[in-house]
Design a protein that fits this description.
The protein is α/β, with parallel strands linked by helices. The protein is built from twelve helices and five strands. Strands 2-3-1-4-5 form a five-stranded parallel beta sheet, with helices on both faces.
């Protein structure tokens, strides 16, 4: 009997019900098109296709369309959010991108609800938006560091689900990727930063302090996945110990989301032949 082929989305979709990140191997490469070099070659091919589709989506948005795509990247420090932006989002025309990196809330942002700054960053029609960290910070760090009480955090899960449902209704396709790395791999990447003088600027001594809370963060991620992965807006848990696989997998998830939209260049609202004749007959 032929082995059943599992799609990438099926392979990476967060389990329904109880989630155990310990049962998900961050070094696996499900549905990869081949070895490291083959997969990197496929990433380049997928990027070229994404660039064409993104141009069509941008044209659609510029002429009144409402559809757009939002890629949400969430993961522990060194999981590779910046690398994904470079290798995946970097394949398309910057004009069609809207990248937002959420840092510690400013005093102004703290005067509003936690989704206020997120709503302001939702990509405009025709764009591919990328959230480098996101509204999930408020239920991850908030939970682990006890910056908000349990009741507040539980309410935020429900608010996030409603918010993402509203995005879907407004024509926003949300692709949520949790970059899943091992504690060992994070240690190697932090050491690499310290050992490379050109990367030491990326190192933050506080990252070591956060490692002491590794298990707390893993549990916070598990609960967030359980509470907010829905049929309309599922989470994808992307094994990220292997950078080449991580980049291809997230790029492929994004490509498939745009393929599903099947954007088309809009038909002109003028007579092409007539306008062409006008230019030909124009006196030089």
């Amino acid at each position: 009997m032929a082995k059943k082929t599992v799609s990438l989305r099926e392979a990476l979709r967060a389990p329904s019900g109880t989630v155990s990140l310990a049962d998900l191997d961050p070094r696996e490469t499900p549905s990869a098109p081949g070895d490291k070099e083959s997969t990197k070659a496929q990433l380049a091919a997928d990027g070229a296709e994404l660039a064409v589709l993104q141009e069509k989506l941008f044209a659609e948005g510029a002429t009144g369309g409402s559809r757009r795509v939002l890629l949400v990247l969430q993961g522990m420090d060194t999981s590779g959010k910046g690398g994904v932006i470079e290798h995946v989002a970097g394949a398309v025309n910057p004009q069609g991108l809207a990248i937002t990196s959420f840092k510690k809330p400013t005093p102004e942002e703290l005067r509003h609800g936690f989704l206020w700054r997120v709503r302001r960053a939702v990509p405009a029609p025709g764009l591919i938006g990328v959230f480098d960290r996101s509204h999930y910070e408020d239920v991850l760090i908030g939970r682990v560091r006890e910056l908000a009480g349990p009741a507040v955090v539980e309410r935020r899960y429900r608010e996030i689900v409603r918010f993402e449902d509203q995005l879907a209704e407004a024509g926003v396709t949300v692709v949520k990727c949790m970059l899943h790395i091992s504690r060992w791999e994070q240690k190697q990447r932090l050491l690499a930063r310290l050992d490379d003088s050109t990367k030491r600027w990326k190192f933050n001594p506080g990252d070591i302090d956060e490692r002491a809370l590794w298990e707390d963060y893993q549990r916070a991620y598990e609960i967030a996945l359980e509470r907010t992965s829905t049929q309309t807006n599922p989470w994808y848990v992307v094994p990220s110990d292997r950078k080449w696989y991580r980049n291809w997998a997230i790029g492929r998830l994004l490509l498939e989301a745009v393929q599903d939209l099947d954007p088309r260049f809009p038909a002109p609202d003028y007579d092409v032949a007539a306008q062409r004749d006008r230019l030909i007959d124009e006196a030089d």
